[in-house]
Design a protein that fits this description.
The structure holds two protein chains of two kinds. Chain A is an alpha/beta fold. Helix content of chain A is 34%, strand content 24%. The C terminus of chain B is likely disordered. Classes of the chains: A alpha/beta, B mainly alpha. Bound molecules: adenosine-5'-triphosphate (ATP) and magnesium ion.
Chain lengths: 268, 291
Amino acid sequence: MSEPAPIASSAASPAQAQAPAPGPGAAAAPGADATPLLELRGIAAGYGSMQVLWDIDLSVAAGECVVILGANGAGKSTLLRVALGLVPAMQGSVWLRGEDVSQLRTDRRVARGIGFMTEVGVFPELSVRENLLLGAYRLGAKQARANLERTYAAFPLTAQFRSRPAGSLSGGQRKLVGVAKVLMGDPSLVVMDEPSSGLSPVAVHEVVEVLRGVEQSDVSLLIAEQNTAFLGLAQRAIVIEGGHRRFEGTVDALRDDAALKRAYFGIE
Amino acid sequence: MVLYALISGILIGLFYGFAALGLSLAFGVLRVVNIAHGDVIVLGSYLAYELSTQAHLNPLIAIPVAIPVAVVIGLAFYRLIAPSLGRSKDPEMLSLILFFGVSQVIEALATIGFTVNQDTLLTGPVGNGSVQILGQTFPNYEPVAAAVAVPGALLVMLYLYRSRLGLATRALMSSRADALLAGIDVGRTSALSFGIALALAASAGVLSIYVNGGVNPSQGADLTTTAFAVVVIGGLGNPGGALAGGLVFGLAEQFAQSYEPNWAGLVPYALLLAVMLAKPEGLFGRRARYA
Ligand SMILES: Nc1ncnc2c1ncn2[C@@H]1O[C@H](COP(=O)(O)OP(=O)(O)OP(=O)(O)O)[C@@H](O)[C@H]1O
Ligand SMILES: [Mg+2]
């Protein structure tokens, strides 16, 4: 109950935001300036006795956007679930700002400023307003109401449909409500599982544009995707294939890797 | 006769809805049917019986006595079973078996304590007088049952739909993982809901000893069945639906009793099957869960 107060996005220090992204395999010493916001070290995970991830390293620096690419069943969602504590790691550890949170319950990790948007993204039975309030649940009733006004202004759609069940909105509208909901919690890191799933190209574009705004507000992003449209937001990417990390590096390096592009995305 | 069946159906139906509300709440949060729900109702009936016959108090006093006891037992019991459920590969099956065991234990204990005989209270909750409503005469327990059920259910609805903890509870009913991700303490919220569910069952038991003409240790299974039918008619996992389902069930039963008494026991269940075939999500249920 008495966890240290979470650090809201507004508190993310500019010094951290401008820190250079750590190079591959850089296990920054805790407390150093380059301490990543989120770091996964040597993660192995699975369901029951079936292992689906092997030795995955990943880090997200403050202010950075990292995309996880991979085909269906590659293990992207599983990796995100491990980061949030929804699936236990068989091996490896999860670090938040230099603190080992591997043994911490999901709600406690959330309390430290990670927001997670699942593929569904919203509570479909609950109204848009209730969804938004739940996004800020950890902040308490007063802060939640204050953030609600801010969100209605930033996402007019949420004000317009505030009383509608979130499940009655279109796929694209639902994703935008999902983004608005996760931002309600003033996270310093937003983790998203396939924000593009089920969206038309136009709606994907709209979500990407909204996320561009989020990125500019110094919120870090970790996005699992198959859709390469999200690469435009990212500084770095990792590619997972069959549960193994096949690539880690800058987005430019990924774009230059023609073989990789052909193999995983069928794009020339 | 129409008017009598209508009023009686509404009064008894309100009781049915109230008696099923806890089952609906426990199902919504735990995703399992609490088979012991009816046995907790039976315990509520026995508490009323003892208070009345041994302590010579008004049996309705059993309600404020039962509520805190049931909440505490519910909290403790949830904390007891949660670790095993968390570790289980099939928590639904495990909790079904657990609740079945609890139901058998309560029935056995009640038999030891009170024998298999039916116990009845000879005096109504407010004396033996009858009550006139729109020119029809009813035993006083019918309006009393409704007068307890309505504010009781209203309080639960206020909790669920107007409080912060209630919002967390409904989020949990929608998706446990997403509730965790909202930073909700899922364990505490579940435990509290289960405690409230038991308190509702025990309170309904205090009324049940009148409405069902007495109490006996093996009544629990029937009461669970009735509550389950009410919840399914109204829509699983939707507490408001349980109340509406209770009204439908009560009206069906009372109309059948007025016109075809031999068929009265069958009609509500025939209705249940009809509802399942025509509208599987229940008369007042929302659409099936997404994703
Ligand atoms: N709840 C689960 N129980 C058992 N196995 C699972 C579960 N979820 C995923 N898996 C398995 O784990 C592997 C990785 O799945 P995961 O959902 O992480 O992939 P993904 O990259 O997110 O795929 P997609 O792009 O289709 O969402 C798959 O083989 C899948 O079958
Ligand atoms: Mg996935």
